[in-house]
Each structure stands twice: as C-alpha cells, then as structure tokens.
C-alpha cells in the first residue's frame, strides 16, 4: 500500500479497529447481545401475533415489531440500570427505534388525512434512507470521532481535496436532494390548491420547471460546498464546446426544446395530439395523450392500443403539431349520411339537428348543425356537424349518432339508398 | 425463485450488506503500519541504545510482555488556547510514541483520537455510559482529582510501576492516598523568557528586574493567581501547608500583592491578565521579558527567530528563589476496560513514560523535562533543560486535592486576587475570601 492510499484509508481502518475494540469490552458485548435478542424476540412475537392483528387493524401490523422492540429494550435498559451496569447502548437503540415508530405513525396519520399515494414512495426513497443514515451516524459517533471519519481525505479533484463526507454528499446527498425537490414541488402544488382542477395540465409544466431548478440549485450548492472551483466547468465546457456542438447537438437541442416547451406551455402533460403530424402513421386520426414531458423527450400514450411512444422534444419544436387541447378541449366532429332522391331535404336536416341536440354528450353550445352537402350519384348527401368535450369520445359518439340516424330514418320511412345509377338510353332501336 | 418484488429487494439488500462488510474487513486487514517512515532521530537513538552495553537490559521485554495483541484506544485533546504549532508537536510526539509501541508489539494496534478540550471530558463521561470510550486518556494535572472523584478514571495498578522511576513531585500530584490515578507524561514549568536582542543577561532578583525596567527593558507580568504565585514564597507566603490545608497568610500575601501593585506602577513593567496577549507582545518585541511556560519554548524560538530566546528562572525575592507551580499532562486509565485492554494500556503507559522515550521527546522539544527521576541528557548540549531542572527543583507541586480546591473555586480566587491588585478591595479581604473558598473545598474530600 503506498503512502497516499494508506493515509486515505487510515481513518476508515481506525473505525474498523475501534469497532473491534468496543466489542472486546464485556459491557459492550453484553449490550449488543441484549439488543440482538430483543429484536429477534420482537420479530418472532410479531409474526406470531400478525394473523390475529390483521383481523382487527392491519395497519398496526407493520408497527408491531418496532413497538415490541422498544418495550423490550427499555425494559432491559431499566434492569441494567438497577444492576448498575452500563446500559447506554441499549437506551440509544431504544431511542432510535422509538424515533422510527414516531416516523411511521406520522406517515400513517398523513396518509389518513391526505389519502395521498405518494407517501409510501417518499417513505421508501427519502425518509427511511435518511433515518438509516442518521442512525448509522449516531452509532458511529459513539464509537469514533465521526467528524474525523468524514473529513478523511480520499483523493484530489481539480485541486480540491475530496473527503469521505464529500463523497457521501455527492452521491447520497444529491440523491436525497433530487427526491426532496420532488417532494417540495408536490407540496407546492398541493398548497396552492391545484387538486383536480382543469388547470392541472397547464401548471404541471410550471412545477416541472421549479423541480429542475431546485435540482440544479442543489447541484451547484453541493459543488460550491465541496470547494470545486466553478471556473473548472467553464474550462471543461470551453474545451468540449466543439464536441458539444457536434456530438451532443441533438441532446442539447432536445434539452433546449424541452425547456422552451415547458416555459411556453405550448405542450404540456395531459394534452391530446394528432400523431399523424409527427410520424408516418397511416391513420390520419391516430391520437395520443402526452403523459410525461421531460427535458429530452415526451412520452405519449397512443389511445388506440395504449402503447407508449417516446418522442424527442425537438420534434415538437420543429414540426407542426395538431393538438386538441391547446387552449380548450372542444372538438368538432362530422357524420355523413345520404338519403334517397325524393326525400325532403329540409325535413332531413330537421331530423338530423334534432338527433344531435338530443344526444347527451354532444355540446349544446355551439349547437349541432346539419347541412345539405351535395347531390351525390346515388343519394342526397347531408352532413351533421356537432361539438364534443373530449376528443377521445369522438369515435364513440359518431358511432352512436350513426346508429340513431339509421333508427330514426327507418322509423320515418326515409330510405338510405344503396349506391345505384339510372341509365338513360339515347335513340333506342325497336329491333334491339 | 424470487417471485415477489419484496423478496428480491431484501435479497439485494442482504447481498449489498455482505459486500460492504467484506470490503470493510478487507480495509481493516490492510494494515498501514509498515508504510510510514519513523523520524530518523528515534532510529539513531534506538540504535545507540541497543549498541550501548550500559543500556543492554533496558529494552528487553519480560516474558509477560511478549505476545501482546489487541487494540488500544487513546484520546488526546486539541487545546483551543494552544498555538497550532505546539498542538501539532504534541500530536506528533504522541503518535511517535504509539507507533514505536506498535513496532515493539506488532500485533497491537493503537488508535489515537483527538477531541477539542471544550468537549473532551464531557465526551469521555458520555462514552462511559455506553461502555465505550478510550482506554487511555491524556488529561491535565488539575483535572485528575475531579475525574477520580466522579469515577471517570481508575487507579493505575501498582504492579509493574516503579515509583522511584518518576519525579516524586509529579507522582504526588497524581496520588490520592495510596492510589495512583495517573502517570506523569509531560511536565510544564514556569520560567522567565527574555529576548537576547534586548537583554544580555536575565535578572536574578526582583531588584535587578526593576533596575532593568528603569533602563527601558519592558517586562510583562501576569496578574492571575496561578501565574503569579512564584513570587509569594519570597515573603514566606504559601497556599497550602504541609498537611494540605489552606494557609494563606494575610500579611505575607499582602506583601506580595503590594509588590505587584508597585511593579505595575513602574515604567517599563506592565501587569496583564491574558497570557496570550502578553506572549504576542513578546513575539512582536514590545516586551523584552515575560513569564512563560516551558511548552511554549518551541513557538517562541520560531517566532523570535535564531537564538534570540533566552530562558532563566523567575527572579528571586529577598534571596528566596521563585517557586512557580508545576503542572503538566498525565496519562490516566478508563474504568471500563476488558482485562486484555487493561494489560495493553498499562504497557503503553510504561512505554510512554519510559526514560528513553521521554528523553527523545525532551530533545525534540528542547523544552520539556523528562518525567523520570533519573535522566542522563547532556546538560551542555541542552542548556534549556538544565535551566528547567533548576526551576523544577524550586517549584511548587499541588496535590490532587489541592488542585481540586483551586479549580473548583477558580473564579472566586482569580477575581478576588485581581481586585486586590487593582486596589478595588483590600488585600486582607481578598486573601480571606480565597482562604475561605479553599477551606470549603478541602474538608469535603
């Protein structure tokens, strides 16, 4: 081991030696054994009681092992105290377990009042890891000088010493900050009472921007705290500018497009667009809804088959997109019908408009309107134009209207003819 | 096999935990012991010791000391009021000693940790509650009594400890009855430091000091109680009598305080409260003579530069040599060690107070007296050590109980003393207050 690596590892090795040293002491070993036994008993008891508890209140099941552990630990701690033996470790673990119980209870209460499905996510990704880190730090601090451990130099980066603490900050710290940014953004959304209002889609883009801004801010704060000279990044980006310009052109373009889309709000999560405008889809009416708008690409759920397409942001930025939900969600649909020659066109128009007005999912304003479109080869052709609220309902409502037209015309004796032609002969020969 | 997502996650966690544990075990196994170089002075000195037939028996280990293995934890302090250079020297001395101990006992690992002195004792007390903490702690002499009283340290087993190897005054400071609570590690005496550029020879008496002051040689003196008791003996004053009872004579102490008051009025002599400020003025050349502690010599030598620093005894008064107090650092044992740790700790204590090791430290510092009674350094090569020996011989060593009484009433004592010097209260009233405070503390022990 060379001198550099030995000095880097000294502090970590010392921590290991101190742990061994602590376990050599009968008082410490005894306490550790008691703690392990208490946790094992709690685990066994909770498994035994689980079926009975599930019948009464399944929520308490998850808290049972923690609760039993706390009781056992404080009980044994009291016994140790009475015997004038060292019991600090038992108490410490008991306190940490009590803290875990309090966290779990708080989250349960929060879930009860908010009914939010995100609480479980933040518990697993943010709160429990933070608790584990805090417990590890607390217990390490008992054995060793944790500030010395965290200040142990590992390597040098851009003339800045990187310590163990710095490494934790870059990895776990950044991870926690990203999750925390997400939580803060969601909290902001909830605080400003978005709920399920119609403006959810338009404001989601705004909150995505806030989240990325928080993450960026956190990243810079961490770099600043580490002491890495920011001019280094200027040098790197300057040196890589050619590479960035050529090789990363698409990535940067997508990134910039994504930022611009979010700021402009031209497209946002929840918007419904016509997919034929951005791809080679043969179906001119293939529609999809934007489920996620990221910084590089958007995720679109195709309504016909529920598949998902990942479309780079640049596509939206440079192509003409047909959207059905830009400023409002109303969309017009048309159904065509032909009636036989001899039918009163005014009557036919009346019937069609009545049908349109009677349909519950067709908007009353603007009113549905029927038109005599043209004289067809086989029929008089009419068009019924109506407005609906959601583009995704278009096909269904059109089908329903077509069926109703069929029923109504049948009832009124109006014929919907087959394609037919009348042939008029010129100068007929009696002998032929 | 791992059908449910929960099982897969638990399996991943288990594998990750095992990998982390294996990595930690690998790191622990990678010993750095052979990689650092020892100071060459120790190697040279060790080689000389080994070659010299006079010392043939001193480094041989007895059978019981062979085959020692285990881990020792030593806690030292980062003194907030100490100059970084001196703190670094102290840390280096301790680490040099622990590494030489590890070389002698290859299967022993000594881990040294430093804590700020502001939290050191609290940290030690808290750790004991958990059954954790250091095996050996480095404490100041004046803290020994309160640590012993609160059972935060344990008496050092007398087996294997040769009392006659240590300076009697220092052992007296670590003993309570027949119990020895610490082994002296570093001794710190009070001397008179002067600047050779301004002063050719140090004054031997207070009269000479006044004479030099009138000739323009500026002198700083301390007005804190502990730092100024050196002169009280010139008037037959003492703090405690031979039985350890407070016996501050109002008349004698009054005379000394009056002398201090008159010195304050002398041009060229200034009484200061803060020793750090006084030291700074000395370094900057504003003061030519100040009382100083022996552990400060390396700093003053470096700051003044060259051979400018002169060291002498504090001036005698009425023909009676100055009797400054002596203190220092002690090595103490934790009360909760395993049997093996206790054996190792005791061996470490003996190693760190070994005459060879102490002399190496004394030579490196050129300002510390070894704690051992029999020393054989060359007094011509190290004149400061010769001077310090003379100072030490005349110094006052408070016992554990006496230190406890002083420390427990430090504010009252210092406040009354200072007010008396400033003329805010009468000297006999001040001495009465100090005596009363000390008397309250002593009988309760």
Descriptive report:
- The complex is a heterodimer of chains A (432) and B (445).
- Chain A folds into three domains: 1-150, no CATH class; 235-323, SH3 type barrels; 331-412, Alpha-Beta Plaits (2-Layer Sandwich).
- Chain A contains 14 helices and ten strands.
- Chain A has helices spanning 3-23, 26-56, 58-61, 64-82, 88-114, 119-143, 146-150, 164-191, 200-226, 231-246, 249-264, 313-318, 345-358, 394-412; strands at residues 153-157, 160-163, 272-274, 287-293, 297-302, 308-312, 322-323, 331-339, 369-375, 380-388.
- In chain A, strands 6-5-4-3-7 form a five-stranded antiparallel β-sheet. In chain A, strands 8-10-9 form a three-stranded antiparallel β-sheet, with helices on one face.
- In chain A, helix 5 runs antiparallel to helix 6.
- The termini of chain A are far apart.
- With 445 residues, chain B is of the alpha/beta class.
- Chain B has two domains: 44-188 and 327-392, D-Maltodextrin-Binding Protein, domain 2; 190-324 and 409-441, Periplasmic binding protein-like II (D-Maltodextrin-Binding Protein, domain 2).
- Chain B has helices spanning 5-29, 40-51, 84-104, 117-130, 144-149, 168-174, 206-214, 225-228, 250-265, 275-284, 297-304, 339-352, 355-365, 383-394, 400-408, 410-422, 427-441; strands at 70-78, 108-116, 136-140, 175-176, 179-180, 183-188, 190-195, 219-222, 269-272, 289-293, 309-312, 327-333.
- In chain B, the strands form four sheets. In chain B, strands 2-1-3-12-6 form a five-stranded mixed β-sheet, with helices on both faces.
- In chain B, helix 3 links the parallel strand 1 and strand 2.
- Chain B starts with a helix and ends with a helix.
- Residues 1-5, 27-39 and 49-61 of chain B have low confidence and may be disordered.
- Chains A and B meet through helix 1, helix 2 and helix 5 of A and helix 1, strand 1, strand 2 and helix 4 of B.
